[in-house]
Amino acid sequence: MPFHKNEATLFEVGQWLEQQGWALHTFSKLHKRLLKPFGTDSSPYQGRNHLLYVDAVFIPHLRRWWQLESLQLQELAFLAHSLYQSYDLSTRALWVLDQREGKRRTEAYGQYLKDAGFNA
């Protein structure tokens, strides 16, 4: 729900980003609160479910990954891992790099996750 007059909705922003070659990957945080008259002003976040705003994470669309530079893919893998715990996205970025450069980053990363106790 837009806060300001003539402000775009999440869906409009998402559609525009999609047209620019981006894809919604995940929501890193949902910000919700209750709708009045339920609750009190002293507890606007108790019993809440109305979506106020979200922190949406957009990534380059998967069809475009082959056009990204190697450094961009490495950075994407790092950010996906460290900021969002998106291990699948990190693995995919490393896999594209491996296909391009003939290396074995995907295998090493999978072993790292396994050693850390993640099912990869």
Note the topology.
Blueprint: H1 10-19, E1 22-33, E2 50-60, H2 70-84, H3 87-101, H4 105-115
Antiparallel strand pairs: 1-2
Task: Describe the protein in words.
With 120 residues, the protein is an alpha+beta fold. It folds into two domains: 1-60, no CATH class; 62-120, no CATH class. The protein is 42% helix and 19% strand. The chain is built from four helices and two strands, in the order αββααα. It has helices at residues 10-19, 70-84, 87-101, 105-115, and strands at residues 22-33, 50-60. The protein has a two-stranded antiparallel sheet with strand order 1-2. It is elongated, with a radius of gyration of 19 Å.
Q: Beta fraction of the residues?
A: 15-25%
Helix % is: 40-55%
Envelope shape: elongated
Number of helices: 4
Outline of the structure:
The protein has four helices and two strands; from the N terminus they run αββααα. By secondary structure, it is of the alpha+beta class.
Descriptors for this entry?
alpha+beta; elongated; 120 residues; 2 domains; 4 helices
